[in-house]
Amino acid sequence: MYECVVEVPNGVKDFQYKIWPANDWNIEESLKPLAFNGRNYYATGEHDNGSYVFDKLNANELVTKFKVTFNPRYSLVSFEVIDKKPIEPSGTITLDGNLNDWPSDKILNDPENDGKWAGNEIYKVGVLYENQKLYIAGRFAKTETNNFMVLVDVLGRSGAEDTSTHPWNRMYKFQNGDIDFILESWGEGFNAWVYDATERKFVEASNAVIHRGVSSDGAHVIEVEVPMTLFFSTIPTDVSGNVAFVLTGGIGGDNQWASDFAPNQDDLPGDGGACPIPAVIKNLISFSLN
């Protein structure tokens, strides 16, 4: 029997997990059969995480501390709430998977049927900064292993020149600016990374972000709240930045493959979704306190 107490200061309602027999993601071949996602062993892939939802929470509650228990004898994983907190109203946006409460000037409706692949389309995206938090939203459709990807440049902070140190198979860069934060969603789930200038790579930051995802009628909606404390120890009074969204595939041959961008890029993606490596993003959505 193995137990671990997990603290999540920002609070969560749900999360993804693996029982991982190693201290980092560089797992030895001999240990791969021990990787477990609550259902199956050999759970070593990027998208085979287990998922758990705290189903006895009130609508205005988040879990801030919980205990994980793993019983390898019976291959059972269980979760117990230790502490929780109320959700504090933070302003305009409610993280409920519904974009109706977004101000119309903070939502961009992407042109319909401009995706390069059938069933892989961005419908709308949103960016809003208030109360020292960055809110990001998207409504999209996807198939197979493609993801809805968000790239953020927070001005006044040292970011990455491109996404080459992102742990997944991606190669994007901004024509002007750098990249401080990456989020990818495949539906109701997500992962997030922040660029660490000291380690010179993107590091996992999913637990620092509050997320809500809903899937219905063949489309996915995601809303995310990102605290500025993820980027600054002392938050400037004039925070601003730029964001781009892409319905992304992986790298193949000499191309980064993508179906759709928001905002649209003048020459990306090319025929069949091909983007020469690196895919240079020119058009961005800006955010600031105003």
Descriptive key words:
single chain; 290 residues; mainly beta; eight-stranded antiparallel beta sheet; 20 strands; globular
Instruction: Please estimate the helix content.
Output: under 10%
Instruction: Give the count of helical stretches.
Output: 0
Oligomer: single chain
The tally of structural domains comes to: 2
Largest sheet: 8 strands, antiparallel
What's the overall geometry?
A: globular
Describe the structure.
This protein has strands spanning 2-12, 14-17, 50-53, 61-71, 76-86, 107-109, 121-130, 133-141, 147-154, 172-174, 181-185, 190-196, 201-204, 210-216, 219-227, 240-252, 255-262, 274-276, 279-281, 285-288. It is mostly beta strands and 290 residues long. The chain folds into two domains: 2-86, no CATH class; 99-288, no CATH class. The strands form five sheets. Strands 9, 11, 12, 13, 16, 17, 18 and 20 form an eight-stranded antiparallel beta sheet that branches. A five-stranded antiparallel beta sheet has the order 6-7-8-15-14, with no helix packed on it. β11 (181-185) and β12 (190-196) form a beta hairpin. The protein is globular and about 55 Å long. The model has no long low-confidence stretch (mean pLDDT 92).
Write a compact overview of the structure shown.
By secondary structure, this protein is an all-beta fold.
Helix-strand blueprint:
Layout: E1 2-12, E2 14-17, E3 50-53, E4 61-71, E5 76-86, E6 107-109, E7 121-130, E8 133-141, E9 147-154, E10 172-174, E11 181-185, E12 190-196, E13 201-204, E14 210-216, E15 219-227, E16 240-252, E17 255-262, E18 274-276, E19 279-281, E20 285-288
Parallel strand pairs: 10-19
Antiparallel strand pairs: 1-4, 2-3, 4-5, 6-7, 7-8, 8-15, 9-11, 9-16, 11-12, 12-13, 14-15, 16-17, 16-20, 17-18
